[in-house]
Amino acid sequence: MTYLPKPKLHHPAAAVNALGYSRRDYESAVSTLCAGCGHDAISAAIVQACFELDLAPHRVAKLSGIGCSSKTLQYFLGAAHGLNGLHGRMPSALTGANLANRDLIYLAISGDGDSASIGLGHFAHIIRRGVNMTYIVENNGVYGLTRGQFSATADKGSAGKGGAVNADEPVDLVSLAVLLGATFVARGFSGDREQLVPLIKAAFLHGGSAFIDCLSPCVAFNNQAGSTKSFEYVRGHDEAVNAFDLVLGNPETAEEFVRDEDVLLRMRKREAEYDLHDRVAAMAYLETRRAAGTIVTGLLYLDPEPRDLHAHLETVDEPLTHLGDAELCPGGAALAAFNGAYR
Ligand SMILES: Cc1ncc(C[n+]2csc(CCOP(=O)(O)OP(=O)(O)O)c2C)c(N)n1
Ligand code: SF4
Ligand SMILES: [Mg+2]
Question: How far apart are CA 93 and CA 255, in angstroms?
Fold first, then answer.
């Protein structure tokens, strides 16, 4: 893939974080996406979140499929591990990598075509297995890279650029993620960075399957009147149920705090009745608001005590990649005893 490198020079007065890195250290090549594409705003939010969390870029493994959204791996965290997989098949590669090395921080980047159309089966299984990761779908309702065909998240009745109206029911990835057992589920909007950055930071710190559906308008093929994924439409129909700041460490626990393992989220509820720990109520609320034409955003479901794939499989604490031959291959006698247990 061709790309334009960014100059390595920093402005001497650029702010640095606790690791001594500036925001530039979390960036990578110059984006070649269309000017104004929502996906670039998500890359910028990822850079900001990693900078604010003092994450060492080489501790992150970023994986994606195929699409304009998946291409964005080139534009942030240049020093991270990275893999552009096959269209819709990234979850299998990420599951394998996570099993082999549980010590890295996993970031999955995908598109609505990648995850809800061709990759729906792969998406379902990585979520239901509880892989510890942050999975972001950059959702524009179309296959941007192949010039704007409706994807499986396109709303029924939404009009395409050429005037065609989508007749199919949409796949709502947020409801699906809650149903399949994701322990952190959120929806954001690339046009609302103030909401998105804390969502990404909290997802990184969550110890289970964290999913963020991020509405991300395609300015080339799905930003016209009649589209339900345009900047104007999303701004006009976005209803945030909450907003929060992240509080690390252990401050006095107050009423408005929500705990996610060792992380405290200082919540500001906007929808008084919304209980983000109640899975069934969350699903009912999402469905009711969707039927009313509202795009619900914010942190929508949180299990504060998540169990991940490694807990389910009872794997050893040490990453498998750190083990030597003796531990990985205990010998013929141990294998015979193991097989014997199944006779
Ligand atoms: C197996 C396979 N089928 C089809 C394609 C063609 N293709 C490339 S990207 C894409 C859709 C991308 O859509 P989405 O995931 O929504 O990403 P966007 O470009 O909208 O960000 C398709 C169908 C492919 N690369 N591989
Ligand atoms: S085609 Fe659409 S999704 Fe792709 S870069 Fe352009 S605006 Fe973004
Ligand atoms: Mg898309």
Answer: 41
Lookup: tokens for 290: 């969707």
Report the alpha-carbon distance of residue 262 to residue 182 in Å, rounded: 19
Q: How far apart are CA 147 and CA 151, in angstroms?
A: 11
Give residue 142 CA to ligand 1 midpoint distance, Å: 9
Two tokens at 88? 């819709």
- How far does residue 37's CA lie from ligand 2's centre (Å)? 6
Give pLDDT tens digits for 61-108: 999 999 999 999 999 999 999 999 999 999 999 999 999 999 999 999
CB 123 within 8 A of CB 173: yes
* pLDDT for position 251: 54
Summarize pLDDT for 283-309 with one digit per residue, the tens.
999 999 999 999 999 999 999 999 999
Q: Which residues contact 75 (CB under 8 A, 6 or more apart)?
A: 27, 28, 29, 30, 31, 40, 43
User: What is the mean predicted confidence (pLDDT) over 2-20?
Assistant: 82
Please, which pLDDT band fits residue 330 given cuts at 50, 70 and 90?
confident
Question: Which residues are paired to 243 by β-bridges?
Answer: 268
Instruction: Give CA–CA dist 308/129, Å, rounded.
Output: 7
Q: What is the pLDDT of residues 196-253, one digit of tens each?
A: 999 999 999 999 999 999 999 999 999 999 999 999 999 999 999 998 887 765 555 5
Three-state SS at 247 = strand
Check residue 165 and report its DSSP letter: B
Rounded CA gap, 251 and 266, in Å? 11
Alpha-carbon distance of 69 to 146, in angstroms, equals 12
Pocket lining for ligand 2, CB < 6 angstroms: 33-34, 37, 39, 68, 140, 144-145, 218-221
Percent of the chain with pLDDT over 90: 84
Mutate to test the pocket of ligand 2, among 31, 64, 68, 140 (most ligand atoms within 8 A of CB): 68
- Does the reported pTM lie above 0.90? yes
For the chain, the average pLDDT equals 93
| Atom number in ligand 2 closest to CA 69 | 3
